[in-house]
Every structure is written in C-alpha cells, then in structure tokens.
Amino acid sequence: MKISSILTEFSRTHNIADTMFALDIKNSKLPLGFSKVNKASERELILSSSLTAIKYSITSRKRWARKDPNTEISLSSEYHVWDYNDWPKFKFSPNDDLLKFGYEKKVSVEIPCMINPNWVGRFYLMIDNSRHIEPQELTKLYKDLSNIHYMIIQSKIEDINPFLDYGLIREIDIAILSMLANGYSRESIAKASYLSSRGVDYRIVQLKKKLCASNHSSLINSAYHNFLIK
C-alpha cells in the first residue's frame, strides 16, 4: 500500500482532514550554528495524505516558517498545538493560510525513530473542524503513528533522509564518504571529485562537524548509521 494511502486511512480513522510526515534530526545532534527554522521553507521530502496538504505545506512554510514562533516550538516538542491567539488582530497571519486551505487547526506529534536514535519522525495533523484531541485519544494516536512511522522508514528511508532534505549533506559529500569507506586515498578522492587535495580535506572537516565525528573511522560509522552510504 502507498504511504499516501496509509496516511489517508489514518486521517479517516481519527477524523482528521490530512496528515503529513517528515523525518527530522534531534536538535542535540545538529552541527553548531545550524538552524532548522531557517531551512524549514526549503524542505521537499515531506509525505502527505493529499495534494491539498502538500500545497498548504509549501505555501505556509515559504511564507511563515521564519516568522511563526510555532515553527521553532514544534521542532523541539513532542506534542504541539499551533496557536495564533496572540497574533496581532486584523493582520494577515499563518492562520489565514490554514483557513484558505480548509483547515482550522494544526497539531504536530513527534515519534522516536526506531532505527536511528538521533532522528525523530514528525507528523502534522491537519484538522478541519473544531474538535479537540482529547487526552485519552493520545495513546491510540501515538500507537497508530508509531506503526505508520515504522512502515515509512522501512520502505522510504533513502528517499526522506533529513540530512539531504536540510541540505546538510550533498551528492559530492556522499561520494566522498563512499570513497573514504572504500579506502580511497586523499589524492584519489580529489581526482575523482575534481577537487584539490585541500578541497577534499576541507570537505572532510565539514562532514565531521555535520555528522558529529571526531575522526575518519567515526565519520564513516556515522555515515552508515545515518543511511548516507551503504
């Protein structure tokens, strides 16, 4: 079954208009100075139950990701109801985009990643009525979302890697990591990558920072662990 169909079925079961999903990196595992909020508008590897939800996500993130305090709160919270009660009245707000696409409320839910403790799965529940998610519903929600999260990472892990989606790791970085893992010398990597030896050294230093690695061995291990190389 397609992931979009699974998300649609979950939404129907729980009386939710739409459901979206994205893999994320734990804040404690991000390189120093990196801001997920600043990159949120550029993310593309987001799964959804409908085209409407995708259109809303693109529109809202491009317009509001850096301005809406809920963005940062949601990226560091296990459960967050996006609230616009304090937004200045009579001023265009993220809530207007919610209403424009037929939603009344957005809730984000964080699920621990089962295959990588440095990642989390983040679901966005789009609600089109005034219903509240009652406390007794949360246990069932978390259970169902955990199951969906497991199905997604089993079938789509290489397509939704957050290191790639945030632009932290690029194709040339993956090529360098793969060559390092296969024992290539610095000179060989430079020749294959059309870089100078110093250019290779610089990229390796940056990769160590991004993957929280202290040496070549831990860098390669981290690359494997984060599904950047096979």
Automatic annotation (TrEMBL):
Domain of life: Bacteria
Bilayer-crossing regions: none
Gene Ontology annotations of biological process type: regulation of DNA-templated transcription
Any GO MF annotation of the entry: DNA binding
Sections of the chain in a coiled coil: none
Protein name: Regulatory protein, luxR family
Originating species: Ferrimonas sediminum
